[in-house]
Amino acid sequence: MHRLLNALVTVLSFAGLMSGISVAPAIGQDSPQPRESEAAVHGQGAQPVVLPPGVTRENVDVKDRPLIIEGSVKGSVHAVNSHVTLMPGASIDGDLTLIGSSLSVSPQAGLASIAQTHAPAAAPKLPRRADWFGGQLCLWLLGLAGGLVVLVAAPHATARVDDTIIARPGRSLLIGLAVAFAIFSALSVSGMIMNTHSIFSVLWTPVTVALTIVTVCLLMFGWLTGMRRVGDLLARRCGYVGNGTFFGRMALGLTAFFVANAIAGAIAPGLGAVGLAVEFGIAVMGAGAVVQTAYSRRAEPLLGHRFGGFS
User: Which pTM was predicted?
Assistant: First the structure.
């Protein structure tokens, strides 16, 4: 019993990494310096950059803000997501580059050339099919790693659960459904208690955490043992007799579901969802086998005759 609990706890693990980088544009020029307008533009609250009458000898860069040119710019102007306005008497001797921007030119304004006008390139998005395949690959690798962990942490408990799910798959499914209903009902009640935001909810927090950990570990361990049963069925279909090793048959079941779900999800998301639902049912059946193994002395007299036909 203690080895089984150790196996359940060691399966649970997670990690996260978040990072962000922001870069702000700069506007470089000598005399005169740009001044900020007091009025917002187009109701967006963006303050325009205004180049007053005079000579600006360096290049001008502006991003996400309107640009109003009243004087002469000897360099080039580069505008991103902006609206550039050339007032009467204004001029640009260099190139005007507009990226996702618009331009208004007064008849008396002077403009050498417009280098390019286009919308900014959108960041490439990972195709949904690639997302699905990556998720299935991670699930497959997680299963293989979890199988190694439970074999190392509790080989005898794993073997006993393995024997139970092979001998009584129907009973394991029924018990697993009952246990899953009980656990998720308890989690729902815990969620309602936590939503009260009272002192009692604070005291109840350890119970909610414990229920969550037990649920995840039980389903994870049940999923791995259930995949061993799937591997057995596939091996017999291919003509291999005997029970084989736990890890070998489990890896066979995991690989079969990985390939099937990856192909089904690429064809239609609904087919992939059906595959995941089947995997969840297998995990529930494995969880029932775990409960039977842990409490076999108590469960056998009560359930042996009633559910014997499902074995």
Answer: 0.52
Residue 23 has pLDDT above 70, yes or no: no
> What tokens does 16 get?
């996260």
Task: Confirm whether 287 is domain-assigned.
Answer: yes
Provide the 10 A C-beta neighbour count for residue 189. 14
Helices (H), the chain: 2-11, 128-153, 155-167, 169-194, 199-237, 246-267, 269-294, 296-303
Number of domains in the chain: 2
Read off the tokens for 189.
């009640």
- Indicate the residue among 118, 139, 159 that finishes a domain: 118
Contact 81, 64 (CB under 8 A): yes
181 alpha carbon, distance to own chain's centre: 26
- The CA-atom distances, in angstroms, between 98 and each of 48, 54, 80, 102 are 16, 23, 6, 7
pLDDT bracket for residue 309 (50, 70, 90): very low
